[in-house]
């Protein structure tokens, strides 16, 4: 088996994504957790670039690495939360968690190793942004519009909930 540059790039990006995810779960400061999440998002965008999905990679960086991360930071920083931390798990809990992660990884490896996919000729990498636009606005226009309505309802609901909390705070004073 020869090791190509594409394989090394994929392994590097995948390693950064996994390390970012693990750090996200194990760090204690919120800002550090968000930085780990940004590393994960950017490395996933790199994997999309390797798959010749440049538009999806750009959207990944703009939407997830930028907007979602900032919204998460604002949401965490602007809400009140108790500083009571949960108890750390014992050694037995960590060992069981490690065994579970290894078992899951082994099951995924076995599933992928035994997977037999016939190669198909495809020209998805040619004008992929145009193909996404055509599919989105022709085949999937109803789900696209429904998602926009759901996001609008979520925005209005969050404003109503925020105003309700302001009224409760004013009543307490």
What is the alpha-carbon Rg in Å? 22 Å
SS strand fraction: under 5%
Query: Total number of β-strand segments?
Result: 0
Question: How many helix segments?
Answer: 6
Biggest sheet: strands, sense, closure? none
Blueprint of the fold:
Blueprint: H1 5-26, H2 30-50, H3 54-78, H4 91-113, H5 128-138, H6 141-172
Helix pairs in contact: 1-2, 2-3
Can you characterise this structure?
- It is a single chain.
- The protein is mainly α.
- 77% of the residues lie in helices and 0% in strands.
- It has 6 helices and no strands.
- Helix 1 packs antiparallel against helix 2 and helix 2 packs antiparallel against helix 3.
- The chain is extended and about 70 Å long.
- The termini are far apart.
- The model has no long low-confidence stretch (mean pLDDT 83).
Task: List descriptors.
173 residues, mainly alpha, 6 helices, 77% helix, extended
Summarize the structure.
With 173 residues, the protein is an all-alpha fold.
